[in-house]
Design brief:
Layout lengths: L1 H16 L4 E3 L2 E3 L5 E5 L6 E6 L3 H20 L2 H17 L1 H12 L3 H4 L2 H15 L5 E6 L3 E9 L2 E5 L5 H15 L2 E5 L6 H12 L7 E3 L4 H10 L5 E5 L2 H10 L6 E5 L5 E4 L5 H13 L11 E5 H16 L19 H17 L2 E4 L5 H4 L8 E4 L6 H4 L6 E7 L2 H9 L6 E5 L3 H10 L4 E4 L18 E2 L4 H8 E9 L1
Parallel strand pairs: 7-8, 7-10, 8-9, 10-11, 12-13, 12-17, 13-16, 15-16, 17-18
Antiparallel strand pairs: 1-2, 3-4, 5-6, 6-20, 11-19, 14-15
Helix pairs in contact: 1-4, 2-9, 3-6, 3-7, 3-8, 6-7, 11-12
This protein binds nicotinamide-adenine-dinucleotide (NAD).
The site of nicotinamide-adenine-dinucleotide has 32 residues, from α9 and α10.
Length: 492
């Protein structure tokens, strides 16, 4: 741990000493000069000043992206592929730095963040390889006509990202946008801005032309709003809260932009009596307590069948009570501090709400500030005796907090799974294949995993239904979002 802390301090020194600016038209700038302080959730200590973009700063970034759009769109796909692979190389070179800075900025344990840069690089490489063919569409033949489609990049697009796993999620959006031939203005979350600047540095080092990649720091209500309202921006890809998705839908209405919204969730993990007990238990623990539970696809509602309920909950309690909470750079740590004091207040408020609603706190339900100092540490928590209409079963808590609800029949499981405004992900554990298929069809979610924890396959579609979002990422779904399709019909 001490060695990791010393290394991280080395990486963080430049952020503490210099105000972190915006990257606009290939230059670092402090813009209008407004700033805000960035702190670490570890102990609320100072991580440096960050420039807060004004509307003028955002306009400058959008204009740079607009000026660079035609040149980047005309750059051959093979050339874009080469540059994006070089960007992957840059990310891999700086993998340790990215992981440590990310852990210190957002509190997520290093053991998970170690994968961030590697996965980020893989995202760029995957979409880079498809850049040369991305324009090609379909040929549709009729007796007297032939239709064919071609695709072209939309132009400048906005990418707005959240504070949870901010690095990886940014690459996931920006990689297909650039591979499609779009230029980008990225606005990272104000609560964890550091690794987005490393990403922009790597893009610059990889040789992306000026104006193709722009990054503005700042707040949603000013910088984010201005970005979504700018007429040059053709599409907005947001990863964030459902409430933010609604605001952006309203903000973009006047300029009629294309939207891709990846929003919140209250995802069920449904464990039937005939499930593989140990694997279901491992996956249940992993999918809510890894990444501090600050994960959109976390399995935050456990629906447990009555036949194994007692045995499963007893084993679960033991596992949850033994989760190691600690310094995010400690290799042993599984759960680190929550991202921000505001979020800590939100998560801890549910400990009281659970009691008021009549649920039982089986494990945790406590702040760890008395024991661990001023960081945003909470105990991994398990609520039992819960009903699906309780707030702890309906609201996205976004912390290491699991709500367990009992069910008897398959029909009841489907009903409980679907009685939520969200529909991002679901997890089904059963050894009955027919039941797995029925559940997969019946559960309202964009993504379902059967007898598996969350496993991301880049060519597969990723996204939610209901209040969890609009649109899909991954494979050709991403190209379809960042490109316009034109149909040409030729008479024979
Ligand atoms: P948030 O919605 O508060 O912020 C996300 C981004 O939107 C930030 O950059 C913020 O500055 C910006 N923003 C806020 N208001 C804006 C506005 N009016 N106009 C433009 N931009 C605005 O979300 P958060 O708290 O940073 O992240 C957590 C949320 O993200 C959770 O709800 C989580 O489920 C969700 N999330 C979803 C996915 C997914 O793939 N579905 C993935 C990760 C996180």
């Amino acid at each position: 741990l001490q060695e990791n802390i010393a290394k991280a301090e080395g990486y963080l020194a430049r952020f503490k000493e210099n105000t972190l600016g915006h990257f606009i038209n290939g230059e670092w700038t402090l813009g209008s000069g407004e700033t805000f302080d960035n702190t670490t959730p570890l102990d609320q200590s100072y991580l440096g000043k960050v420039a807060a973009a004004s509307v003028e700063d955002v306009n400058a970034a959008c204009e740079a992206a607009a000026a660079a759009a035609a040149g980047w769109a005309a750059t051959p796909g093979a050339e874009r592929r080469k540059i994006l692979h070089r960007l992957g190389d840059e990310l891999e070179k700086r993998a340790e730095e990215i992981a440590m800075v990310e852990s210190m900025d957002c509190g997520q344990a290093l053991r998970f963040m170690r994968q961030a840069a590697v996965r980020g690089a893989a995202n760029f490489r995957f979409f880079a390889d498809q850049a040369p063919e991305a324009r090609n569409g379909l040929s549709l033949h009729q007796a007297e006509h032939t239709n064919f489609t071609v695709r072209s990049p939309l132009g400048p697009v906005a990418v707005i990202t959240p504070w949870n796993t901010p690095f990886m999620l940014s690459t996931w959006k920006i990689a297909p946008a650039l591979a499609s031939g779009c230029t980008v203005v990225h606005k990272p979350a104000e609560l964890s801005p550091l690794t987005a600047s490393i990403l922009a540095e790597c893009a610059d080092a990889a040789g992306l032309p000026k104006g193709v990649w722009n990054m503005v720091n700042g707040f949603g209500a000013v910088a984010g709003k201005a970005l979504t309202e700018h007429p040059a921006i053709k599409a907005v890809a947001l990863v964030g809260d459902s409430a933010t998705g609604k605001m952006i839908q309203a903000q973009t209405a006047q300029t009629l932009k294309r939207l891709h919204l990846e929003l919140g969730g209250k995802n069920p993990v449904i464990v039937f009596d005939d499930a593989d007990f140990e694997r279901a238990l491992d996956a249940t623990v992993f999918m809510i307590y890894s990444l501090n539970g600050q994960r959109c696809t976390s399995s935050s509602r456990l629906l447990i069948q009555s036949g194994i309920k007692d045995k499963f909950l007893a084993a679960l309690k033991e596992r949850v009570a033994n989760i190691k909470v600690g310094h995010p750079l400690d290799p042993e740590t599984e759960v680190g501090p929550l991202v921000h004091t505001g979020h800590y207040d939100k998560v801890t408020s549910y400990f009281e709400i659970a009691k008021q609603d009549g649920a039982t706190i089986a494990v945790g339900g406590k702040s760890l500030r008395d024991e661990m100092g001023p960081g945003n540490y909470v105990t991994p928590t398990l609520f039992v005796d819960a009903k699906n209409d309780m707030r702890i079963a309906q609201e996205e808590i976004f912390g290491p907090v699991l709500t367990a609800i009992e069910f008897d029949t398959e029909e009841e499981a489907i009903k409980l799974a679907n009685e939520t405004v969200y529909g991002l992900a679901g997890y089904i554990w059963t050894s009955n294949t027919g039941r797995a298929m029925r559940m997969a069809h019946a559960v309202e979610a964009g993504m379902l995993w059967v007898n598996s924890e969350n496993n991301r396959n880049l060519p597969s579609p990723f996204g939610g239904v209901k209040m969890s979002g609009i649109g899909r990422d991954g494979g050709d779904w991403s190209f379809d979002f960042y490109m316009e399709t034109k149909n040409v019909c030729i008479a024979h």
